[in-house]
Amino acid sequence: MRRGEMPVLYEATGDGYVPGEDVALAVVIRHSSADGHGHVRHLIEERELATGGEVLLFGRISGTAHVVGDLG
C-alpha cells in the first residue's frame, strides 16, 4: 500500500456473545469487546487476509464461535 492510500477493509460480524466479552478474531490479529447486546464487529484490512479467506470469531467466555468466509 502506498503512503496516503486508504486500506481496503472487510467486515466480520457475529451474534450470541456475552455482552462485554472479549471476542477473538483468528488468525488472531486483534481483540475487541462485544457490545451491550452481545454483538461484535471486526474490520480486517485486505493485506491481513488471503483472497477468499476465512476468519474465526471466538468468544472467550461463552465459547461462541462463528466462521466467516468468502472474504477478500
Task: Describe this structure as you would to a colleague.
By secondary structure, this protein is mainly β. It has strands at 9-14, 22-26, 30-33, 40-45, 53-59, 65-71. β2 and β3 form a beta hairpin.
Shape: elongated
Oligomer: single chain
Q: How many alpha or pi helices?
A: 0
Can you count the beta strands? 6
What class would the helix/strand composition place it in? mainly beta
Uncertain runs with pLDDT below 50, 5 residues or more? none
**How is the largest sheet built, in terms of strand order?**
3-2-5-6
Radius of gyration: 13 Å
First-residue to last-residue Cα separation: 16 Å
Query: Sheet bearing the most strands, described?
Result: 4 strands, antiparallel
- Provide the helix percentage: under 10%
H/E topology pattern = EEEEEE
Mean pLDDT: 86
Beta fraction of the residues? over 45%
Per-chain topology:
Layout: E1 9-14, E2 22-26, E3 30-33, E4 40-45, E5 53-59, E6 65-71
Key words describing this protein structure:
two-stranded antiparallel ribbon; 72 residues; mainly beta
Short synopsis of the structure:
The protein has strands at 9-14, 22-26, 30-33, 40-45, 53-59, 65-71. Strand 2 (22-26) and strand 3 (30-33) form a beta hairpin. The protein has 72 residues and is mostly beta strands.
